[in-house]
Every structure is written in C-alpha cells, then in structure tokens.
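Suppose you are handed only these lines of text.
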Amino acid sequence: MQEVMKIEGGHMLEGEVTISGAKNATVALIPAAVLSNGPVTIVGIPQIADVDSLSAILRLLDVEVIEVASDHLIIDPSHMVNKDLDDDIVTKLRASYYFMGALLGKYGRVRMKMPGGCYLGPRPIDLHLKGFEALGAKVSYEKGCYTIVADKLVGNKIFLDIASVGATINIMMAAVYAEGRTTIENAAKEPEIIDVATLLNKMGARIRGAGTNVITIDGVRYLNGCFHEIIPDRIEAGTFIIIAAAMAKHMVINNIIPQHLDALLSKLKDMGVKMKVEIDKVTIEQSDHLRGVDVTTKPYPGFATDLQQPLTALLTQAAGESKVTETIYIERFKHCLELQKMGADIELLNGSAIIKGPTALDGSRVYATDLRCGAAMVVAGLLADGVTEIRNVYHIDRGYSEIDKKLEKLGAKIWREYIPD
Ligand code: EPU
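From them, the structure of the protein bound to EPU can be written out as follows.
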C-alpha cells in the first residue's frame, strides 16, 4: 500500500495560516547542537519527516532527544559517543551531511554514508570536503562511506568557488573548535546560515559576518548548552503566499520575515497580485488578472530555487508568456512534466521553461518527484478542475509541516488515502 494526497480543486481559500520554523535551518541546527557539552533547547521545530530522521541519527550517537512538545526539542549530547554512521537512515535526507562538520569539529573523526535527499541533478559535496581538508582533515571514500579524520584542526582561509549553503554551514561547524581563525570567503548569505551562527554563538562560539560573504570563525575550547528559537520558514511562507495568489479570496500568512521574501514578493507584485505587507505577516487578496513574468533563480537574496517550482504552477494561470530560468540546479524541472500532464502549456529548454497562460488545469494523477515539486503539485491541485492524486507524498512530508491540515483550515478539500502499490 502507498499513501497518496488527494485534492479536489476549485475551492476558494480564506483565513489565516501560521508559518512553522524553517526546515533548512532546523536540519542544520539539530546536528550543530551536538557540538555543545550540555543540553540545547530548540523551539519552533517544524513537524517534518527530516526532523524524525535527524533525531534517529542523534539517538544512534547516544544523544538524548527529549520531545517536550511537538515543536520543542531538548538535545542533550552529554553522554554522546562518536560512532560510525553507516545506518540507512543517513541516506534518507541531504542534511545528514551536517554531521560531517559537527562530528569532525567535535571529535576530529567522522565516518558516514553518502547523504541522500531530493534528486535535483548532480549535487556534489566537493566544496564541503575541500573546506575540511583546508582545516587539516584527510578525506577518503570507500564502499559508499566517507571517512574524514584530523589529528588537529587549524583555522585557514577558505574561498568557496560557489556560494554553497551546505558547505558554508558545514565548514562553520568544523571550525568552531579549530585552533585560530578560519575565514570563509564567498560564503553563502542565506538567512538559515545566520540562524545556525546565532545558535553556535549562543553556545559560546565566536562567529562573525554570517549573512555577508565573508565569515570569520575564531576557534574556542568549550561550547555550552543554550536556548534557541528557529526563524520562520521563508520557503513554506513563499509557498503559502503563492497558494494565496492562486486560490484565495483573502488570506493572511502569519509569522514571516518579509525581507526574506523580497524577491518573491516583488515578482508577485509584477504579476499583479494584490498584497499588503506588514512587519510579520502578509495579506493577499483575490486578483482578477495575473500577468506572466520572467524569473531567474539566484543565491539569496535572489529568487530562491526552492520557490521556482511552486511559482511555475501559478504562472500557468498568468496571461502571456513567462520564462523561468534555473541557475542553481539546472535539472530542477521535473515538476514541469507533471504540470504538463494536467494541461499546462510548458516548453522545456536547457535550464529554463517557457510557460504560456492562462491554461485550465485538469485534476490528474501526478508525482511529487521531489519536495518542491510536491509543493507545485499542491498549488496545481488546488487550481485544477476535479481531483488530483499526488503520489510519493513522503517527499512533501519531508519538508512541509502539516500542509494538508493547514490547507484544510483554509477551506481546501484535501485528504490522504492508502491505495495499492
Ligand atoms: N555545489 C557544488 N559543490 C558543493 C556544494 C554545492 O558544486 O560542494 C553546487 C550545487 O550543486 C548547486 C549549488 O552549488 O548547484 C548550490 O548548492 P548548495 O550547496 O547551496 O545547496 P545545498 O546546501 O545542498 C540547500 C538547501 C536546498 C536549496 C539549496 C539552494 C538544505 C538542506 N538544502 O541545499 O533546499 O535548494 O540550498 O538554496 O538546506 C529544498 O529545501 O527543497 C532544498 C533542496
């Protein structure tokens, strides 16, 4: 049997939704907590499958994980043991790679399987490994496992060829206990990086410049426990804003940091979406006419690649021609094939998609080929005539906290079923 999500489209949405803590911060904050020597309390944890997988990895390392409430974890690494991470759980998500930086930083040794995650085309981790090597580690790869060891980690100057989110965070974690100063140049500037640096600094680390393209880390000898609240998820917020632009009479999206969404909000304004942005929320009103726009994904503060997929579903409803160009993951277009099944007029080129609209969408059987493709299918399902059946729904559950419950409260007809394989 397999679980599917079904959506009966065409029902207008109305009401308020509150955004959960950021997935891509959470999946780094949990591994970062093991660098401490005492309990770390994190609140604002989203209810996503990636958190369950990371908690399972913590337990493999004898780290105590106490679930105080559904969004509140205490991670206590006081009795932690550094073991080989060769369990299959590691391959369930991309972010297990943050245990590389965290365990190398704390113990000078890590052995783990290759991390998994969404297939978006090739996703190398060469920059992470180059960073570890620059700090004095030796990296080897054998039978699907990485072994990274260092007698001593010493701060160094590291220039990233690409401003990689994962490499920036991983090197920060590996460097917190290193001797002397580490400088990461051409660092990624995503808000999630600032959140991780904030947690580490609360623990006693000395990280400066997170959120700019030069980060310095001065090594310390001891990190203690602390309390931390996760920033709101800008991609979940963006997804709900897109959903509102597609199908809401009136929707308030609460618990957002509007600056994190500037690139999306500016594109939606160009499309003719009616919105009111306030300090921590945005209100979207029904728009009678949407115009097509061109979008190119870029590292933060540019247009997020993770929002390109749900936006493409909305663009099928905009008048004229839109062009979506990917510069981060040039193969991240599987959602377009699914949208075509529903009747969308999309032409795929190398690294971009041309969408002509508006086109009516028909409820169909589609696949969440990856997490944000799943979000695009939800947007399309809400818009479509008839019932859409989304398969591989586990991809959606990896990254969206109770998306169906939140949509149901807004008036969507959305439910889950088990069907034969
Ligand atoms: N890259 C390399 N070598 C590396 C690392 C990255 O060539 O060692 C390339 C990648 O192939 C890609 C670009 O650099 O072309 C940027 O990748 P980055 O490392 O920034 O991505 P990531 O850390 O693997 C995170 C998010 C992704 C999000 C990207 C881009 C997490 C766990 N994942 O991935 O989120 O798309 O940044 O913003 O934080 C998602 O949430 O659906 C998702 C895929």
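What can we learn from it? The longest helix spans residues 234-247. The chain has two domains: 2-19+232-419, 23-229.
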